[in-house]
Amino acid sequence: MGALDYLSNFCTVTTTRSKHKAMQTVEIKVKMDCDGCERRVRNAVTSMKVEVNREESHVVVSGYVDPNKVLKRVRSTGKVRAKFWPYVEQHLVSYPYATGAYSKRAPSGYVRNVDQAFPSSHDPQDKVADFFSDENVHACSIM
């Protein structure tokens, strides 16, 4: 049956097919001071699964969505300073106290998602330490 389907693609006129959006989770940082702000943000994205945490100014939207459209909908409520969530959980980052990773504005347990937060593997001191490591089978065996 696969060969007939393949050949039928050459015989038929192809039209533009709509691509299905992938299941995504969009995290947005929105300052919400009161119940009214929270309700407006929640109502802006009612057709999707929404989790709102007012204390952390964090909105999580799940579904078959376009992240930019979700952000646009949230901004249409009057929250023009809304932006994508810039933080990651602290335990997911291998070096959370690197320059630029720590933020006073981040909620408790979160750090900024920056590339500098990961240790560099090009550090010459790391190579020297690995050279004399017990785990290295080609290490120096003077003793």
How does this model look, in words?
GO terms for molecular function: metal ion binding. Pfam families: HMA (PF00403). This is Heavy metal-associated isoprenylated plant protein 21 isoform X2. Keywords: Metal-binding. The protein is of the alpha+beta class and 143 residues long. The protein is 26% helix and 17% strand. It has four helices and six strands, in the order H-E-H-E-E-H-E-E-E-H. The strands form two sheets. A four-stranded antiparallel sheet has the order 2-3-1-4, with helices on one face. Strand 2 and strand 3 form a beta hairpin. The chain starts with a helix and ends in a 12-residue tail after the last helix. The model has no long low-confidence stretch (mean pLDDT 77).
Question: Averaging pLDDT over every residue, what do you get?
Answer: 77
- Describe the global form: flat
The parts where pLDDT drops under 50 for at least 5 residues are none
Biggest beta-sheet profile: 4 strands, antiparallel
The number of helices is: 4
Kindly state the percentage of residues in helix: 25-40%
Number of strands: 6
Structural class: alpha+beta
- The H/E string reads HEHEEHEEEH
Strand content: 15-25%
